[in-house]
Design a protein that fits this description.
The structure is a homodimer of 325-residue chains. Chain A is an alpha/beta fold. Chain A folds into 3 domains: 43 residues, lambda repressor-like DNA-binding domains (434 Repressor (Amino-terminal Domain)), CATH 1.10.260; 127 residues, Response regulator (Rossmann fold); 126 residues, Response regulator (Rossmann fold, 3-Layer(aba) Sandwich), CATH 3.40.50. Chain A has 12 helices and 12 strands. In chain A, the strands form 2 sheets. In chain A, strands 2-1-3-4-5-11 form a 6-stranded parallel β-sheet, with helices on both faces. A 6-stranded mixed β-sheet of chain A has the order 7-6-8-9-10-12, sandwiched between helices. The radius of gyration of chain A is 26 Å and the shape is elongated. The N and C termini of chain A lie far apart (72 Å). Chains A and B meet through α4, α5, β2, α6 and α11 of A and α4, α5, β2, α6 and α11 of B. Chain B binds a DNA duplex (30 and 30 nucleotides) through α2 and α4. Chains A, B: Keywords: DNA-binding, Transcription, Transcription regulation. Chains A, B: It comes from Planotetraspora thailandica.
DNA sequence: TAGCGCTCGGACAACGTTGTCACAATAGCG
DNA sequence: CGCTATTGTGACAACGTTGTCCGAGCGCTA
């Protein structure tokens, strides 16, 4: 900046004023300064600038489980767009469902003085963020609630959606429904399982633990479990898959066998209309989830200090897949 | 930091030493300082730190077209992981194929003094980055080459892959092959179309422009084009779709009609093994693409000043989809 | 023409940290 | 016991920028 000032024949402060579009500078000087800036390729250092002026960093952080997963990729896309609209840069990191890693990454983001955080929590204790919140960093949790912390949260109606879906299966006369899920350690899985149970009691169907299988990590594991269940004498007449990766495996196995079991899956997915098996999915608006969370965050950043709120977004039952030809 | 020093009864500099794990500090003092740090909730300001010490920002930027797109999401995931392994934060932004927006976002990243940039170019002139490169910011372009700039680049063998795929169709006896593509403004589309043409001449099949349709933006547009082509008297016996969104639409229409046209698609996709139509895809390793680019970038950041290199990754023909039941 | 207010430019300090250097205290040596 | 090394500590300036404040120069009025 001093070089620019020398070149333009003005004081350092005048250059600062020009660079910051401050008033009270002669048009002629402005021009000279801008010329010098262009010639010397000067660009102001935002670190020094915000150090002195105490301005925010115009950066937010987004912590998700896994970027490559379409659910999180969709969220990241929406957040990136809203961040751009707010002239804010976006730092993204993946916790890979590891609480230690989550904590480390969130700390790092806070250290970098992000203006706000959007977090899909991995661990179940986020007390370490309390100091940061009190220090004034806004934070919005999405898809799952934070542990041990009262904070803004945007969730899906996992429980209600699962209950509605199960009710549909029960109304169709199914009494033996296989329920397949990933880890019970994940909040959404617990909620969805609870929702399924909610529907059983009013229908007079007992909760049979032999029909519930957890720890299913991917499509092929799901296919194996389905195969095994169908081979039992009291095979299920319907399946409820609690996430879309499991749904894929179930479809694969049911299609392979030419089975006519009903299939209900939580999570919609791309190409769900093209899969070779009729299924009903519990769908929701992922983009709306991200939008609500990001908008809330920016309202907080702009100074909204009202009491933390929790938003729950609805789910919807949708018929998908192709009938067998 | 001054408060911490006062509380621990040491000088400010000693606190700095402790915070930076510098040697030559008495263990007892270290302890007192750390206690004061904990009590006051002190965290050093990396902006001021790097302002003074001139250290790099430990941040890289990734510019892609659209985060929600699985191709870019996969890239982002790999880059995020490699960044983490290098203790580096990752800023992600989407250009949405808009050259102006690309330029604006890249400038902003450079202003923030990122240590390096990974760019999927949207525009075709990146001369504005030359000053930045000469200033010492490493940059690696991926999936598409930069315009008007000699720089590190990691590409896929679009042309070779398309040629091999077409050759396969020609060997199977197809002579009328419908070619469907998105905009010719996109580098990869041009390369793939060139590759298709490369295969036609040696097989003695003329290039018939009536069989080539560009400007196809999504699955439903693709389905319409297929429908129209199949209704013509000299309907194609095979289709070559130049990206996976188009492939989806083609499948939909071919399946709907119960057609037996052969289908070749560029880009593999999730669930490609579950779609209700037999198809061959030109697949490649997206993760490897991202890995190669990110590794190269970090080698540059670590000081590798060798001549810019261009890496071209191979493609592979893979049979996918389910035969009709 | 003196006095007044208004505009604009520049000197200076400060943001929070660390590199440099100097000095004090201790240990090691002849 | 005095000398030099070595280690531990602190004063100071500097990184690049901007907020504060003062005063120079200007035009206007009485």
């Amino acid at each position: 900046m001093a070089d620019v000032a020398a070149r333009a024949g003005v004081s350092l402060k005048t250059v600062s004023r020009v660079v910051n579009n401050a008033p009270h500078v002669q048009p002629e000087l402005v021009e000279r300064v801008l010329a010098a800036v262009a010639e010397l390729g000067f660009r102001r250092n935002p670190q020094a600038s915000s150090l002195r002026s105490g301005q925010p960093s115009a950066t937010i952080g987004l912590l998700i489980e896994e970027i490559a997963n379409p659910f999180y990729a969709t969220i990241a896309g929406v957040v990136a767009e809203i961040a751009r609209q707010n002239d804010t840069m976006l730092i993204i990191a993946s916790s890979e469902e590891d609480p230690d890693r989550e904590q480390q990454l969130l700390r790092e983001m806070c250290t970098r003085r992000v203006d706000g955080l959007l977090v899909v929590p991995a661990g179940d204790d986020h007390a370490f963020l309390r100091a940061e919140i009190e220090l004034g960093t806004p934070m919005v949790f999405l898809d799952r609630p934070a542990g041990g912390l009262i904070a803004d949260t945007v969730l899906l109606d996992n429980r209600g959606g699962a209950r509605d879906g199960m009710r549909r299966l029960l109304e169709a006369g199914h009494r033996r429904i296989g329920i397949l899920l990933d880890s019970l350690g994940v909040y959404t899985m617990r909620e969805r399982l609870d929702g399924a149970q909610d529907a059983l009691a009013p229908a007079g169907v007992p909760y049979d633990t032999r029909l519930v299988r957890d720890g299913i990590r991917g499509p092929s594991a799901a296919a194996r479990v389905v195969s095994e269940m169908l081979d039992r004498p009291d095979a299920p007449t319907a399946f409820f898959s609690l996430n879309n990766r499991i749904t894929l495996g179930v479809i694969e196995e049911l299609h392979r066998r030419g089975s006519d079991a009903a299939l209900l899956g939580f999570d919609d997915f791309d190409m769900a209309g093209l899969v070779p098996y009729p299924l009903t999915v519990i769908a929701y608006d992922t983009r709306e989830l991200a939008r609500a969370a990001a908008e809330l965050l920016f309202r907080r950043i702009e100074g909204d200090r009202s009491w933390p709120r929790t938003v729950v977004l609805p789910t919807e039952l949708v018929a998908r897949g192709l009938a067998p030809r």
